[in-house]
Amino acid sequence: IKIEMHFLPDVYVPCEVCKGKRYNRETLEIKFRGKTIADILEMQVEEALDFFQNHPRIKRRLQTLYDVGLSYIKLGQSATTLSGGEAQRVKLATELAKRSNGRTIYILDEPTT
Questions:
Q1: Inter-axis angle of helices 84-96 and 56-67, to 10 degrees?
Q2: Given a cut of 80, is residue 70 above it in pLDDT?
Q3: Which end of the chain is more exposed for a tag (fewer CB within 10 A), N or C?
Q4: Which domain holds residue 10?
């Protein structure tokens, strides 16, 4: 639960009902290979790659996150907690995970300071 502090950074307090898991009890009773959705969202990309090794569509998307150096982020990590560089790499991974039609060219410009 987000508490706005106005002149200070916002404070986040875990929900008393779900204990910060983000889902109700009924949803958390559903498991896939012994894991709830909350467990899966707590996985880092590297761990999730192994967990979803037999699911090519999921694995391909996770692999691009891994390839751009984001193996350490959690699947359920809030976008607001990412640094600017991490957010850019998520965008890059999203683009690279798309199916190629063979007619795409990427022009990358490295900014200088």
A1: 140
A2: yes
A3: C
A4: 1-40
How is 14-74 classified by DSSP, letter by letter? --TTTTTSSS-HHHHT--BTTB-HHHHHTSBHHHHHHHTTT-HHHHHHHHHHHHTT-TTSB
10, 28: one domain: yes
- For residue range 5-20, list pLDDT tens digits in order: 888 888 888 888 888 8
Q: Which residue has the tokens 């965008």?
A: 91
Residue 88 host element (H or E)? helix 84-96
The pTM score is: 0.79
Collapsing DSSP to helix, strand or coil, 102 comes out as coil
Cα separation, 31 vs 44, whole angstroms: 18
Asked if residue 85 and residue 62 are part of one domain, the reply reads: yes
Domain total of the chain: 2
Task: State residue 85's pLDDT score.
Answer: 92
